[in-house]
Specification:
two-stranded antiparallel sheet, 50% helix, 10 helices, 272 residues, alpha/beta
Length: 272
């Protein structure tokens, strides 16, 4: 390569660095762009490995995907502090529920994802190029959120598969991303599923991202995420009449934990 091109390359990198330091908007766009590129390229490289090792769509591919995604945090200066990991080691199937904040949740998910655990995601993710391919290969269960009937049918099948195949299922009960530092009201699908299958609910709470990630403020810096896995909530003996109480109990517990992890204990007390 000619020295002139090297100089131009160095100048461009230096300019980008200066712009990132001077402009939060440029810093945000570049970091998000790099994150998306990392997802696309990593998915394209990991998909053939999954096919070669496991032969197709299976939850076993999540072990390979998890190994790759767990390296992402080093590119963005993110640190995860996990407490209560032992609660994910319960024998047999379970429903895992967690708060859903942003596209960065994937990194947090892979930090604690137990083996033989599938996620429930919106159907649109299937068409997200190489990313859609890799999550398909990882066994993600897709639901059509616009069709209540379809979603209920899928979740009913999930309940049977979960027990038959002895797998855990990870669900975001808020139903959509929420980067406000609080929780949205929970949808009851995950809790109906837990009661129907008579399996425990395991809440997982991630501290608020707002101190280092906030799209409205063009904020994306390094930071620490506290993760707490709460003790399983048993559902044996519960019926559909108990789903609302189960949902409310889980919501209150997770909300209090979210505020505590995020340094907002007074709000947790006020909300109780």
């Amino acid at each position: 390569m000619e020295p002139g091109w090297l100089l131009w390359g160095a100048a461009v990198l230096l300019l980008l660095h200066v712009l990132m330091e001077l402009s939060p908007a440029v810093n945000f766009v570049l970091r998000i762009g790099f994150y998306l590129l990392l997802c696309i390229v990593s998915s394209a490289l990991t998909a053939p490995v999954c096919l070669l090792v496991n032969g197709g769509r299976t939850v076993k591919n999540m072990r390979i995907i998890k190994t790759v995604v767990k390296t992402f945090k080093y590119f963005f200066g993110l640190r995860f502090e996990v407490k209560g990991r032992e609660h994910l080691e319960v024998e047999g199937p379970a429903i895992i529920v967690s708060n859903h904040q942003s596209m960065l949740d994937m990194m947090g998910l892979m930090e604690v994802l137990p083996n033989d655990c599938v996620q429930v995601g919106k159907k649109e993710l299937m068409y997200a190029g190489t990313v859609g391919l890799i999550i398909y290969l990882g066994g993600v269960i897709f639901i059509n959120r616009k069709s209540t009937t379809n979603a209920k049918m899928v979740m009913s099948e999930v309940a049977k598969t979960m027990v038959t195949d002895n797998v855990k299922v990870w669900v975001y009960p808020e139903g959509t991303r929420n980067c406000t530092g609080d929780l949205l009201p929970f949808k009851k699908g995950a809790f109906h599923l837990a009661v129907q299958a008579q399996v425990p609910v395991i809440p997982v709470v991630y501290s608020s991202f707002t101190s280092f990630y906030n799209p409205k403020k063009n904020l994306f810096t390094s930071g620490k995420i506290k993760v707490e896995v709460l003790p399983p909530i048993e559902t044996k003996g519960l019926t559909s009449d108990d789903v609302s109480d189960l949902t409310d109990r889980c919501f209150r517990t997770m909300r209090e934990t979210l505020f505590r992890l995020s340094g907002r204990p007074s709000e947790a007390k006020d909300s109780s």
